[in-house]
Amino acid sequence: MCAQLLSTQPYKGTRDFYPDEMRLRNWFFGKIRHTLETSAFDEYNGPMLESLELYAAKSGEEIATKQTYNFVDHGNRMLAIRPEMTPTVARMVAGKMNDLSFPLRWFSIPNMYRYEATQRGRLREFWQLNVDIFGCDTYEADLEVIISAIRILKAFGADESMFTVRINNRRFFNDVIAAIAGTDAEGSRLVSKVIDRKNKVTREAYEKDLTALGLSAEQIARIDSLYEMGVEDATAICPDSVGACELRSLFAALRQIGLDRYCVFDFGIIRGLDYYTGTVFEVFDNAPENNRAMFGGGRYDNLVGLFVKNAKVSGVGYGMGDVTLENFLVTHKLIPDTFDTDVKVLVTRFDDVPYEKYLTLTDSLREAGITSSLYLGSKKFGKQIDYAVKGQYTHVVIMGGSELEAGVVKVKNLETREESTVSATKLTAFFGA
Amino acid sequence: MCAQLLSTQPYKGTRDFYPDEMRLRNWFFGKIRHTLETSAFDEYNGPMLESLELYAAKSGEEIATKQTYNFVDHGNRMLAIRPEMTPTVARMVAGKMNDLSFPLRWFSIPNMYRYEATQRGRLREFWQLNVDIFGCDTYEADLEVIISAIRILKAFGADESMFTVRINNRRFFNDVIAAIAGTDAEGSRLVSKVIDRKNKVTREAYEKDLTALGLSAEQIARIDSLYEMGVEDATAICPDSVGACELRSLFAALRQIGLDRYCVFDFGIIRGLDYYTGTVFEVFDNAPENNRAMFGGGRYDNLVGLFVKNAKVSGVGYGMGDVTLENFLVTHKLIPDTFDTDVKVLVTRFDDVPYEKYLTLTDSLREAGITSSLYLGSKKFGKQIDYAVKGQYTHVVIMGGSELEAGVVKVKNLETREESTVSATKLTAFFGA
Q: B335-347 burial by CB neighbour count: b if 16+ within 10 A, else e?
């Protein structure tokens, strides 16, 4: 048909989900969905293709063009495969500003693409959970969002030895710098920029930059000490700061419902300097071999500004990639060996019994809601058993000529190897239906 | 920020799924998944992007380029967003030929894109259920696949007045034409091509073409009569044809399990002339205003030939688009008004009660598995009730200062308007947890 055979490999950075991988993924997303729905979050989704300008407007044309899969359609529109969900959700919220009932509690698990070098935890095609609350300005929404992240990890069996939520607040960050450095707004902004780059430069360069902005060695030391402080000591430096109040309220509420053991205050959490405006947090994997931020988020403003003039909707949320979360679950051995705990029955076949007898039997099992199928084909019994084992069936039903005559079937439990003889009319009851 | 405001419309031919639409979709896909899993089908999925050559090899370069969204990546690879699932699943089966346990019973509900003019039932982004059995040559696999389609529609509440499965067999089709026309293989192929175009040309042109191939008026009339025949009469014309045997066995089996009332033999069902090799079927909507094929499928051979030399894996299956199925459900009023029958509780707030009291209450509901949230913000009670109604909450919990003092809460059922006073410690039990 074709001189050259085609490759069976998926495109670089993407994955094939065979049934085994798909079972894992469905288990995975199922737990996330269930956890969020129990907390009254509503699921949404949007198109895989969006106008490229949506990403260019947020991240700049160059980044948008380089990091997305983008192209021009036959109608000369510049399109991109979504590399993130925020521009889509902003467009959707802006499109129904007057119909939607705020605050919105929304989540989505879209597939998306980024054009990047593939490495551990980074693929070109991935799924990303997005959880956001829109239209609530208080720390209570920040709390809800952080609780949801903790609840998801707990639902997978993770405990406080495995992960830590590191929390800071950008308003507090600005206020405490102003309090220590004695700078005005512009001065504080410049100091923030230096602090933001702290881990990217040498200690010497860091101190030199702060000194150039007028900070004394003592002031620099006071900023250093913030990294060691708990929330009480840190917020005591500028107790009247709105950000300090938010931080204290947030930690008090977490204590109230016993979730404070997963959380610490961390002055080192800053995130995108120009994007976040209040609470910011990152969830760290505590495993020594992988001790880094898995995902994070925070409060941002002016979500819909690109779409609606003079409108303001604040948001707080996070995005969690499926590859990162899966790596975490693997590291901490939180993925069970099998997901199918339910009964799954293979009706085996012998040539001396009419096909329609098997058909009726299988159909009655399905009608009773029992997962089942009839072996297709006419291989030897041993091969049919092999097929059942590989396909993760839990039981096989055996009905040869002698069983048919006696009005019974044999049921073999593939795990315990136990064999039972059951009246054909009581088979569905045998499986508890 | 941006001089020109961006549009809030999604890209042409795609859809935004706000929570209401997403609830419908989750209900929709949930029913399909459950039905197929009960029949022991396994879900799989693959990447959204594939090599363009996968589609070019199947449909020709021109069609593949015109009908897909395709582009060249930074590594100079020609890629396409998948317009269908068959090439992906063929690649996946070919890639693990020796590890997989045949017959495979696979399904998938991928999102895909086609570049086409949008109209009713046709969008550019859609989801398509794909159900296939690979590696079983007998009519039994065809039967399983047809049963699955009927079971899915039945699961939505559709009955035989609403849809009909029209079934033919390509081997029978070839044999019965040879029997009536007395043609050899090549002659039958030419006659088939004329019959395949029957509805696209005038009756006059049709007869003229058949006459040119040597058919008499009587032979043409005998072919005409096939369109009126049931399976018994039609297959009696060439009783020894393998295709006739398959058709008779298929209908006998459908009768055996009471599904024959959804099915008819229809000589007019041909489908892609060069693609299908055995059983073919189409599922028709019986509604007078929409009486047309909703979806169809059949048996095809040589699935993996493009990837593996001299390997043969047969397949039988179908693809069902989400838009088509949704239109069918709307036409027949099979979509319920609400999908959330479960309890969903909004804990309302008053300023005279400390926030942490509400927080603990809400948290205890969630711990008990009851879907619930605490109202975020501090609006008037009436506004909070409005929010609950719009958000499809079923109950609100009311705990003002006097209730707190008495150790009780009030629960209002938003549907019945009934109000109950419940001991705060018995609230989860009140909701049945």
A: eeeeeeeebbbbb
